[in-house]
């Protein structure tokens, strides 16, 4: 079976982190750093009588993407919701620090997010790891390298994970890839069901889901759920410029201020889509990926140098 | 210490720092040994949302654009990120990241950024402000937390009593300054009975290099025994030296 066939047949949402890495990269090119055989497990889960995983839910390594050398990290959303703990976070921080040292021989660092945020059982270590990773992402970007985020897994990209995603040079998102700081249940618990009904799945998807994130410009590219769609979008983003400097931050300041001016009083995503000039905003959730990608590209073509 | 007491001790000759009606701290003050300290922050346990984050970031970018050498102080007594449908609808993650990025860019450009945690802070607000500075200091009353124990009890399905008992032996998940400091997040606590101006002056002379050494600090303090070694091993393997 060709790599393309294999990738095309693999659902990003259904795949494990290891399957995503294998199908995204050129066949057989992945080499893992500190693999599961080394059994570097979390030292903090025993006290809660929770099962550990030999890779702590984070896979890091190097490989080839269309014959370009990349570093890659992937979170396993099915282990503790892909949450950041001490070991989990340190592997990604170390990969990014290595990328800074090896920047000359790399094309990009890819981060396959699938996370609920900080792992509460080791919350202080997880939160600090997120801050360290953000710093390391920006160091890598300041050196001129792409750091791309790919989001479309079961756990979405929540909490501190969403703040790391906001530091990436660009994001690829699928419809299933929710990006949000507070999760629906957390908002409902803290502010009441009138503020946010976490059981209203349509509300969750149109607020935090990939389509709204793509239309707002939170994400730069939209992928169908298939791995080859993520691969195509990733390669397209690699050909664009990426910089982290004062000019980029000033452009981002303008971009985000403009978003508040334009959409700050919209009560719902549907009104934002309407304000964007979309004629039938209520049809967005059911729109097939191909048609949606064309629509999104038409509406929102800037912002690549504004993040 | 109250914000007024802190500002009086940092700037005995007076200052131009104010808290606006949204709980944001903005202004500047003259340093003891000459020069000006720029100030941003969050007061009164205010949650940080899209509107506050973009205003604070705007000030950071103005400071960078003037070519100022700093320092930039970030005073924090916030809540967590603002939890609302509107904030998340508009992409709060980008606004908090943007503020963090501007602070880290300031540090990269040679502006010494100093976080001063004098009250509460939590979750996304803590990451985007205090944790995005070069060095984080704490004053009495500092009370950082990722999640309070009752909320943690709901998520982990463990009773509050069980969590309190476990917190005694496992500081890695428990709220509070000492537990957070042990991981390496907080460099030092300042003495409220001594001049804060003098303690700031001493810190600015000592912490002159940008960069992130918090995992080593966490290892020294016994709060994160594995992070520094794991990160270092991955880095070595990644650069082909392993």
Q: Mind sketching the topology for me?
A:
The complex is a heterodimer of chains A (307) and B (242).
Chain A: H1 3-9, H2 17-24, E1 31-32, E2 58-65, E3 68-75, H3 86-101, E4 108-113, H4 123-142, E5 146-151, E6 157-158, H5 160-165, E7 170-174, E8 179-180, H6 184-191, H7 201-208, H8 210-216, E9 221-223, H9 227-238, H10 246-263, H11 269-275, H12 289-299
Parallel strand pairs in A: 3-4, 4-5, 5-7, 6-8, 7-9
Antiparallel strand pairs in A: 1-2, 2-3
Helix pairs in contact in A: 3-4, 7-8
Chain B: H1 3-10, E1 16-19, E2 24-30, E3 36-48, H2 50-65, E4 72-81, H3 85-89, H4 92-108, E5 113-117, E6 120-122, H5 123-128, E7 135-138, E8 143-145, H6 149-156, H7 160-169, H8 177-182, E9 188-189, H9 196-206, H10 214-220, H11 227-238
Parallel strand pairs in B: 3-4, 4-5, 5-7, 6-8, 7-9
Antiparallel strand pairs in B: 1-2, 2-3
Helix pairs in contact in B: 2-4
Q: Helicity level of chain B, as a percent range?
A: 40-55%
Gyration radius from CA atoms of chain A, angstroms = 19 Å
Q: Calculate the mean pLDDT score of chain B and round it.
A: 94
Cα-based radius of gyration of chain B, to the nearest Å: 18 Å
Shape of chain A: globular
The total strand number of chain A stands at: 9
Structural class of chain A: alpha/beta
Largest sheet of chain B: 7 strands, mixed
